[in-house]
Amino acid sequence: MCPFCYIGKRKFEQALTEFAHRDEVSITWKSFQLAPDMQTEPDKTIDQYLAEHKGIPLAQAREMNAHVTRLAENVGLTYNFDKAVVANSFDAHRFSHLARQYGLQDIAEERLFAAYFTEGKNTADYDTLVQLGIDIGLDATEVRNMLNSNLFAEDVRADIREAQQIGVSGVPFFVFVHKYAISGAQDSNIFLQALNQVWQETGHDALPLAENDGASCTPDGCS
């Protein structure tokens, strides 16, 4: 649900296309909730939610989302905030963990992003998540059974605790083999530099996490 996470995904993917050892890179998505207490409200617009959450005029919220929409267009993404559904993300995170078991997590994240930002789907709705599972090759019955249970709930919470332990306060946040961290939707060349440096130094003593200032979202909003 973080608009800069989808943008950051595209920029990281661009870096991968230029990385000589891209076939040896594995990606694991970790769960992080910007608004864990958010209530699913299909009848409320994202503009309305943002205005209420930040205590700003509705017109200002619309312009903020319009600005992010223009940034998304720069990396080939279409954001339709007028259709986006205010939805708690916890079950979507559990869905991602299920997909990971089948090597489909990156595809699942792409499908979730598109469903939320472009298609205006309710990503907290079980029927919607089942269909998204079918779209990426998961078994519909298994997805529904998972959603109707507590499966992967602790995995999601463990990811959030891990993020808190290493000081993550906003997303996107990229960690490279526990050696470097990049915060925000940085330019692809920043990701490429990190990939090359980590590749050269793999096996050396761990180094402090690097800090930077990329576009990101925190519980207080996006910037």
Tell me what the structure shows.
This protein is 51% helix and 5% strand. The longest helix has 16 residues, at 3-18. The protein has a domain at 88-166: 3-Layer(aba) Sandwich (Glutaredoxin). The chain has helices at 3-18, 46-54, 58-73, 90-101, 105-118, 126-136, 140-147, 153-165, 188-201, and strands at residues 173-176, 180-183, 217-218, 221-222. β1 (173-176) and β2 (180-183) form a beta hairpin. It starts with a helix and ends with a strand. The chain is built from 9 helices and 4 strands; from the N terminus they run ααααααααββαββ. With 223 residues, it is mainly α.
- Compute the number of strand runs: 4
Q: What oligomeric state best describes the polypeptide chains here?
A: single chain
Q: Which structural class matches the secondary elements?
A: mainly alpha
Number of helices: 9
Q: Approximately what portion of the residues adopt beta-strand conformation? A: 5-15%
Strand order of the biggest β-sheet: 1-2
Whole-angstrom Rg:
18 Å
Instruction: Determine the N-to-C terminus distance.
Output: 14 Å
Q: What summary fits the major beta sheet?
A: 2 strands, antiparallel
